[in-house]
Every structure is written in C-alpha cells, then in structure tokens.
Amino acid sequence: MGGYRELFNASISDPAAFWADAAKAVTWTREPQQILDDSNPPFYRWFPDAEMNTCANALDRHVEGGRGDQAALIYDSPVTGSARTYTYRELLDETARFAGALRGLGVDKGDRVVIYMPMVPEAVIAMLACARLGAIHSVVFGGFAAHELAARIDDARPSVVVTASCGIEPTRTVDYKPMLDAALDIAEHPAPACVILQREQRPCQLVGGRDLDWHELMSDAEPVDPVPVAATDPLYVLYTSGTTGKPKGIVRDNGGHAVALLWSMRHVYDIAPGEVFWAASDVGWVVGHSYIVYAPLFAGATTVLYEGKPIGTPDPGAFWRVASEHGVKALFSAPTALRAIRKEDPDGAYIGRYDLSGMKYLFQAGERLDPDTYAWASEKLGIPVVDHWWQTETGWAIAANPMGMEQLPIKAGSPTVPMPGYDVRIVHVDGSACEPGEEGAICIALPLPPGTLPTLWGDDDRYEASYLCEHPGYYLTGDGGYLDEDGYLYVMGRIDDVINVAGHRLSTGSIEAVLATHPAVAECAVIGIADEIKGQVPRGLVVLKSGASAEGLADELVQLVRDEIGAVACLRLVDVVPALPKTRSGKILRKTMRGIAHGTDEPVPSTIEDPAVLEALKPVLRD
Ligand code: COA
Ligand code: AMP
C-alpha cells in the first residue's frame, strides 16, 4: 500500500483507475466495464454498467465465505437492560425473511420504504431487507416528530412504513405510534401499510386494516434471495437539513457506496474482517447508515448497535464499558458526547475502570473537534483521537487522517487532509482561489468520488441549484475554512443557515417555518448560538402581530417546535422583539445577529434598511 500523498495524487490524476482498483473489493453480479460516466456533467455516475446487491455484499458473501458464526451485530441497550449478539448467519436469516415479508406487502425494486425506528436490531434488519429487494429505504431519525416525518413521507411516497411502538430515552419512553398517526394525517400521501415492532416496554394499539405486527409477519415469512440492481440504482434516500424548511433527499447509489465504504474501512479506520467497530451514532443519521450498518458489514467486521447515551445510562463510563466489553478496536462518536462525558468526569476516572487495551482509535465527526476537547480525550485515552469531516451528502469522509494507510501528524483543530477523490479547494465569493491560510468557502472539484450523492431525490434542479451553480465545476460544501501551508484542512463552520446541535444537523429555516405558524407571530428569525456542550443551540426571535400578547408565548413556541419538529431541535430560548433587522430588499440579517450574539465584530451590511432596529436588538442578542 502506498503512502497518503501518492494515493491521493493517483486518485486525482486518474480517478477511474483508482476506483477501478478499489472496486475489486466488491462482489458484483456484473463486473464494471466502465468506471465513470462523465458524459452529462455536472451529473456523474460511477460504475454505470455494473450490477450487484448491497445486502449480499453485507451478509451473504460473508456467510458463504465462512464467517456465518462470527458476530455481525452486537446490540447493547442499557436503556432496556438487554443485549444480544447476531451472527452473520442469524442476521442474514432475519433479513432474508423480513425481505420476504416486505415483498408479501408488495414492495418491489425501486419502491420506497420509510423506516422510523429507535436503535434496535430490527431497524438494521429493515434497512438490509430493503437493500436485498432493491427497494429504497428512507430512515427518519426517531427524535423527529410528526411534521418532519410527514414531510419525508410526502417526498419519498413509501409503499410501506416500518416503525416501533416506542423509543426509550433515559428519562422517558417516547411513543412513536401517535407521531406516525399524526404524520399520516398531515401527509398528502395516502397511508401505506405500516409494520409495527411491538416493544415490551410499551406496546401500542394497532390500526385495523393498516398496521401489521412485525413478529406476526415474520412468523410465516419466507426468505428471499438478493435482487441484483444497477450500481447506479438508489440504495436509500436520507433527508437532511438545507437552508430552507424543506429537507433535501440525499440519494445514495448502490455500487459507488459499497466501493467507497469498503475502501474507507481499511484505509481510514484500519478495520480488518473480524474486528469490532463501533459508531456511537443513530441509524437515523448518515453516520449510522454508513458506519453502524453498511461499512462494518461490507468489511466482514462486527458492528455495535448501542441504545444508550454517553452519560446517564448509567454514568459517564458508558462508552468505555461498551468498548471494553465488546473488544471495540475503533470507536466513532461526536465531540458533543466527549464534552458531555468530560463535564461529568473531568479527570477521566471512569476511563481507568475499564480495560481499553484493545481500543486503538477514537474517531470524531459531526462537528468540529475543538482543540480543548481533543487535548482532553487524547491525554486521557492515550490513543490517536482522529477528527474527520464529512456530510450526509458525501456519505464518507472528505477529510481525515487515514489510520490504515499512513498516520499523519495530528494538528488539533484540523480534520487533517482530503481523502482520495476529494479535490478540495478554498474559494472567495467571486470563485477565485484563496491562498494557504486564507479562509473561504470549501468546495470540491467535480466529479465527486464514488459513494457521494449523485442527485437529490426527484429533484435534479434543486441538486444543481443547491450545490453546483454557485461555482461551476465545483460542489459547494456549505462549510467555510482554509488549507494551511502543509495542505491540512481547517473546517470552521457552516456559511449558510444550517446549524449543528449536539452533532445533529438542523435547519434554522424549518424551525422558523414552525414558529411562523403561531397565530401571534408576525415574523421570526432563528439563529444558532454557541453552547458549551451541544456546540450550538437555536435561538428564536419573534415579532408579534399587532394586538397579540407576549404572555406565555415563549413557552408555547418552545412546545410547538417540540411537537412539530421534535425534542431534538432543542429550542429553549425565544425572545419577543419589536422588529428584525433587514436589508432594503427585505432579507433578515441572520449572520449579523449571529455575530453580535457571539460577541464578534460583525460588519453591518451597507444595505441595512434601518440601523436603529439592529441597535435596539444588540442588548437582547448579547444577553
Ligand atoms: N428519539 C426520541 N427523542 C430523542 C431521540 C430519539 N432518538 N434522541 C434525542 N431525543 C430527545 C431527547 O430525549 C431530548 O429530549 P428532552 O428535551 O425531553 O430531554 C432531546 O431530544 C434532545 O436530545 P439530545 O440532543 O440527545 O440532548 P440531551 O441533553 O438529552 O443529551 C448529549 C446531550 C450530548 C448526551 C447527546 O446530545 C448526545 O449523546 N449527543 C451525541 C449525538 C450524536 O452521536 N450524534 C451523531 C452525530 S455523528
Ligand atoms: P451531517 O450532514 O449531519 O453529517 O452534517 C454535516 C455538517 O456537520 C458539515 O457540513 C459540517 O458543518 C459539520 N461537520 C461534520 N463533521 C465535521 C468535522 N469533523 N469538523 C467540522 N465540521 C464538521
């Protein structure tokens, strides 16, 4: 294996040769003859003539290759006090039968299935079963409420929804079924068949003629074989926050995804077949899709599915307990989790209680790993703490320190260097290149490597408008930052209206859309403000309709956002203000307000309509 620089240069100078070589790790039902279809820029397709099945690559081939009795998935659930290990053979058996059950409900290649589930093995089984049929899953994070679920149902138009009776948070049981019912009421898409996993912690009442019990369906389901699909066929649609209230349906293909994730398991995460990998995320996020479900299984490794939190289930030693009990070689979590652990266990006393000799790496993503948290974790754990940067859109790391290829010196605050296939450029607003050390918009020259989004679900125009039009020939990441003299990347934060709350990506636009529905609200703005543990939290500013009362309004608005978007939005602060600062064309000055709230000297645009409005707001924002 070459060193980083050599491989990176090869991937940029001859991408087709580089990824043709990586593609040998996949089991194809029809080998790729053409590697990259670049005949229709800015749309690119990887492995356009190849066929394969994602589920067969994740399960069947390992059973056929002699790993049937090896652990594929370890479910560890402190919130229910249960644990279970599935071997590859067991996971294949359950998946093939659930695929049979879905087929019995009419699910076919290309159909969509919405999966709205907590962190239970059945969520993974449902995803893999869709992949087995060539159906397209769309997983919705359990922390989202009815409104967000409905928006995704209307866009994906599923033939089936798979859910559970409840999710279990440390302090409460969250009923999923009422949220599903409400979402199906709001949605325009006619209610499809709903498969419901009854959990013993709180079963629910099924709706006759619509709802089916998971266990009953499985009891007489026949297993089905994997259906070969085109490498370019969609494997899943995962909705993520954009700058408007309407979520973007990120499309992931089958072939490029398998090639890229397999490459990353070996080169970025240094994971070999049989080793244990744990991404402490949620299957509802991209990290969960890529590194709880698909990549570890593609690699023949063992994945850990953890239904718990970094703290409180039961204590700040939870991560270290799981890592030591299951022999985790690499743990992947978000910096917010480390900050939460550190707050409760600043001296790392809990770390010392467990044998962590098998844990070689701690990977971090979801938000910038701040140098202070980096220093704490690397000192307390004594292993490489590796920040790496990526997005739902890319599905795998754009920049990382490739532990399985060459361990580069770590610079705190930097996710290190671009990964193969990602030709990262920093540009000014006018598209000209920034100098080393100079901050600008982070872009990636097209084509993006395999595994990244080929388009948005049913919306090529929005894909182009959101990512490709600003700087033709480049993908706009939405993040700002710089490259230093050594080619290390520094990602400093979003330059749009996306915020990152406890490693969860949220759109201020979608929170504003909910606030605006309240009858007392004339207009509103939501900005992200700094938070010690969660990185950022949203803050709402609302202007009242004339004659409306502010009495109790903040609490009502907090509850409204909780009911509509979900508790995960974490909106706790809402201020009633006399007016919002705007440009003469009516654009609300969110960036300026954000800067004032953060105490930075934010320049006020010359196009401001009424500077007095901003002046009047300053004491509120600085409070
Ligand atoms: N289903 C239902 N509700 C959920 C949920 C889910 N899957 N996930 C979170 N929520 C709820 C929580 O119960 C909480 O509700 P509350 O306001 O009634 O307490 C709310 O959403 C906010 O949750 P969370 O962001 O988890 O905050 P917290 O204060 O409970 O915990 C941390 C703080 C730091 C421990 C937690 O945010 C965490 O573990 N973050 C890591 C996130 C992560 O791994 N992201 C993956 C990115 S790679
Ligand atoms: P998501 O699509 O939910 O994975 O969120 C992607 C966004 O999270 C990115 O655009 C960044 O703003 C932020 N992000 C993720 N990982 C990192 C990281 N390692 N450093 C800085 N920002 C990050």
Give a written overview of the molecule.
It is a single chain. The strands form ten sheets. The protein has a seven-stranded mixed beta sheet with strand order 5-4-17-16-18-19-20, with helices on both faces. The N and C termini lie far apart (55 Å). The chain has 18 helices and 31 strands. Helix 4 crosses helix 5 and helix 6 packs across helix 7. A hairpin with a 5-residue loop joins strand 25 and strand 26. The protein folds into two domains: 363 residues, ANL, N-terminal domain (Rossmann fold); 125 residues, GMP Synthetase, Chain A, domain 3. It is 31% helix and 25% strand. The model has no long low-confidence stretch (mean pLDDT 96). The protein is of the alpha/beta class and 623 residues long. The structure holds coenzyme A and adenosine monophosphate (AMP). The site of coenzyme A has 28 residues, from strand 9 and helix 12.
